[in-house]
Amino acid sequence: xxxxxxxxxxxxxxxxxxxxxxxxxxxxxxxxxxxxxxxxxxxxxxxxxxxxxxxxxxxxxxxxxxxxxxxxxxxxxxxxxxxxxxxxxxxxxxxxxxxxxxxxxxxxxxxxxxxxxxxxxxxxxxxxxxxxxxxxxxxxxxxxxxxxxxxxxxxxxxxxxxxxxxxxxxxxxxxxxxxxxxxxxxxxxxxxxxxxxxxxxxxxxxxxxxxxxxxxxxxxxxxxxxxxxxxxxxxxxxxxxxxxxxxxxxxxxxxxxxxxxxxxxxxxxxxxxxxxxxxxxxxxxxxxxxxxxxxxxxxxxxxxxxxxxxxxxxxxxxxxxxxxxxxxxxxxxxxxxxx
Length: 339
Ligand code: AKB
Description:
Radius of gyration: 20 Å
Strand order of the largest sheet: 3-2-1-4-5-7-11
Strand content: 15-25%
Number of domains: 2
Helix content: 40-55%
Number of strands: 13
Structural class: alpha/beta
Bound molecules: 2-amino-3-ketobutyric acid
Number of helices: 12
Distance between the termini: 47 Å
C-alpha cells in the first residue's frame, strides 16, 4: 500500500514554512512530503515525512512520486514571484505555468489511481488584477473576483492562466474523450494580497517593501522603500494566509460557489506601515526612493479586495487587522527572531 500523504511544492518559502508548521500540529492529517528545488531548511525537517529536492519541471520525478505515495492533497506553492519574473519572463512562464500543468496532470493521474479526486490548493495573487491608472484604482475601491483582470506582469498573467487551467482540469479535462474521465481533480484557489512574514525573508516580490521594511528596522539597518509613501495595496499577516489555505482546503466542495476566491485583511499605505514600524523601532531609518517601474506594478494592483465570497462560502475571517498584525504578531515575532 502507498503511504497517504499531503504534498507541498515550493515548501521552502514563506508560505511553505507556515503551512508545514500548522499541518504538522493538526490531528488526523496525513504526513507531509515536500518538493523544493532548494530542499528544506533543517529546522523544518522534523515536521515532514520526506524532503524531495527536485524540480516541478522534472516529469520523471513526478511520476516516481505518484507511484511511491498516495497523494491526497497538493498545496502547489512553487513559483517565481512578480519582480523576479520580470527579469526572467520566459523562465517564469516555464516554472509558473508548465510547472503547474505538470502538477495538475500528476494530480489527475493520482485521482484516477486512487479512485477519488485529489484536492489541488493553489495560491493565486492580486497580481492577476490590472488597474489602468491611479484615479481608476481609487474609484474601484475593493475589487471583486471578476473585475479588472488585466495583469501587467508575467507573474500575474501566469497566475490568472493557472486559475483557468485549474478549472479546466477540474471540470473539462479531455472532454472529448470517448469515455469520461472517471475522477478529475478538486481545484481550489485563493488570490493572496501582499504577505508579511517574519519567519522567512521575502524573495522577489513587488509587495516585499512591507516585510523588507520591518526586517531592516528590526536589524537596525536603514531601508529605502521602493514605492511612494501613499502607495496602497491589500496585505495579510502570514498566519492568516495559512488559515485561508487550510480552511479552503477543508471546506466541502458543495459549499463552494466558485473555485477562485479573494482573501484579504488590511490595506495600508506604505506610510502607515512605516508609522507602525517606527512605533516599534523608533531608531529605524526609513526613506522613500520609488523605483518607477516597480511602482507602476504596485499602482496597477487594487487598493483593496472584496473577499465577501470567501466569507460567505467558507467562513473566511482574518484574525489580524492592521494594528493587531503589528502589535500581536509581527513585532513580537521579529524581535524574537533578531534578539
Ligand atoms: C509579489 O509581490 O509578487 C507577491 C504577490 C503579491 O503575489 N507577494
